[in-house]
Amino acid sequence: MKIAHIAPPWLSIPPKNYGGTEIVIYNLVEEQVARGQDVTLFAPGNTRTSAKLVSFFPKPLVEEGVPWQGHLKAYYHLHESVEYIKRHKFDIVHTHLSSSSDMYIFPLVSPLVTPHVTTLHSRFPFDRVQSWTGKADELYMEWAPLLPMVAISESAREEVPYDLNFVGVVHHGLSMQQFLPTAKKRGDFFVWLGRFVEDKGTHLAIEAAKRAGVKIVLAGTIDRHQQDSVNYFNTVIKPQIDNDQVKYIGPVNMKQKISLLSRARGFLNPIEWEEPFGMVMIEAMAVGCPVISFTRGAAPELIAHRKTGFLVKNVDEMVRFIP
After folding, report:
1. Within this chain, do residues 141 and 202 fall inside the same structural domain, yes or no?
2. Residue in 278, 285, 237, 231 with CA at minimum distance from that of residue 261
3. Domain-located, residue 203
4. Residue 136 — pLDDT band, cuts 50, 70, 90?
5. Per-residue confidence at 323, pLDDT binned at 50, 70, 90?
6. Residue 183 placed within a domain
7. Cα(99)–Cα(89) distance, rounded to whole angstroms?
8. Is pLDDT of 137 > 80?
9. Angle between helices 20-34 and 279-286 (to 10 degrees)
């Protein structure tokens, strides 16, 4: 089968550090190639893949310094990908929605004769995520029913305030050969991993760790293109870092993440939004690292309470489950 994947042009595939959508695309493409499929991936030029790579930019847009609002280059990537597909024969096209610029997929892909499916990787509509006051996304909704879509959790599908053409729900997966514990003994610390934004609840993870009297290691990305992320880290998180009870080690790559999760006593996940999935939760469980998460978003779909992790409603409950 000839499969085309159109990835967003913003981050590396696989991601160097943060990039949930990008690691999902990477794993899916690699598995399809391993199973003998003929796969073409439309992604930035420095992508590492076993598939045929078609690129229109040498590097991801973020590495080129393009702000998230720089939609013209994102549109060019999507437009050229679709034009390439029109000139070549594919059996199916798989597109991936993760940010507001990906909305261009709606009018570009909907007229295709080739069967196509779109995975919704983020909360929708995207304006809600970025706290914009405009409703530009709504202008594209007339094409939405023409795209068969897949949600990454039941929660994500239920959260969409539109009648999109969902054909199913498929949870993300992992390459279990990659996620092998690298430590025989757990350390004396808990861990928080992610992107530094208030919704991810880093400040609550620190509060829980302090109240429980345990150490916490923060491994995360500061989004330099998003002022809210920079301000949140500098004003709320940085003043609490003492390199003793609260330690910040910066962003981590996949190898470092696996090592960190293999050594941590647990992963604290006090999310304050309806997160559509949450890759770190299944990555932690894959290496035997217990997850203590707020009962938000897809967490109840991924965690079996008291079996594979713990679901809590607030910081008070989180503290009680920290051993």
Report:
1. no
2. 285
3. yes
4. low
5. confident
6. no
7. 28
8. no
9. 60
Question: What's the CA gap between 8 and 77, in Å, rounded?
Answer: 8
Q: Are residues 158 and 108 in the same domain?
A: yes
> For the segment 206-264, what is each residue's pLDDT rounded down to a tens digit?
999 999 999 999 999 998 888 999 999 999 999 999 999 999 999 999 999 999 999 99
Higher pLDDT, 161 or 37: 37
Which among 137, 169, 201 is the end of a domain? 169
Q: Quick one: 224 exposed, middle or buried, by C-beta within 10 A (0-12, 13-18, 19+)?
A: exposed
Query: CATH code at 287?
Result: 3.40.50.2000
Does one domain contain both 126 and 194? no
Q: Which two tokens stand for residue 290?
A: 């217990």
CA-based end-to-end distance of the chain: 50
CA distance 68 to 65: 9
For residue 134, what are the domain limits? 2-169
As a whole number, mean pLDDT of residues 13-26 equals 88
Q: What is the pLDDT of residue 321?
A: 96
- Which tens digits make up the pLDDT trace of 79-135? 999 999 999 999 999 999 988 788 889 999 999 999 999 999 988 765 544 444 445
| Residue keyed to tokens 């996940």 | 269
**If DSSP states are collapsed to H, E and C, what string results for 161-218?**
CCCCCEEEECCCCCCCCCCCCCCCCCCCEEEEEEECCHHHCHHHHHHHHHHHCCEEEE
φ, ψ at 233 (rounded to 5°): -65, -45
As given in the structure block, the two tokens for residue 37 are 């499929």
Same domain, residue pair 95 and 210: no
In this structure, are 146 and 284 located in the same domain? Answer: no
Q: Under DSSP, is residue 127 helix (H, G, I), strand (E, B) or coil? A: helix
Distance CA 275, CA 298 (A): 6
Number of domains forming the structure of the chain: 2
Q: Are residues 197 and 314 in the same domain?
A: yes
